[in-house]
Amino acid sequence: MEIIIGEDNKKRIDAFLANKTNLSRVTIQRLLEEEKVLVNGKRTKPSYRVRTGRYYNY
Predict the structure, then answer these.
(1) Is the domain covering 2-57 a CATH 3.10.290.10 domain?
(2) Distance between CA 26 and CA 34 in Å, rounded?
(3) In sequence order, what are the residues at sequence separation of 6 or more whose Cβ sits closer than 8 angstroms to the Cβ of residue 6?
(4) Given this model, what pLDDT does residue 7 score?
(5) 4 Cβ partners below 8 Å, 6+ apart?
């Protein structure tokens, strides 16, 4: 699945994706560590802040 952000949200990516899916923050954090969630095709940390125009793939 791909999500494109239309406006700055400033939430942590783990909280943002947990809110957009039915997955827990812990699960999202694990997926980030396993590089199964990418921002613009690159690995990121759970503390990354969501920003406009970024592509979030999972």
Answers:
(1) yes
(2) 12
(3) 52
(4) 66
(5) 53, 54, 55, 56
CA count, 13 A, side-chain hemisphere, 38: 9
Q: Give residue 41's pLDDT.
A: 84
Structure tokens at 25: 């923050």
Domain limits, the chain: 2-57
Reported as a single tens digit per residue, the pLDDT across 1-57 is 766 666 667 889 899 889 888 899 999 999 999 998 888 888 999 999 887 766 666
Residue type at position 35 = E
Other Cβ atoms within 10 Å of 27 Cβ, number: 14
Start-to-end C-alpha separation, the chain = 5
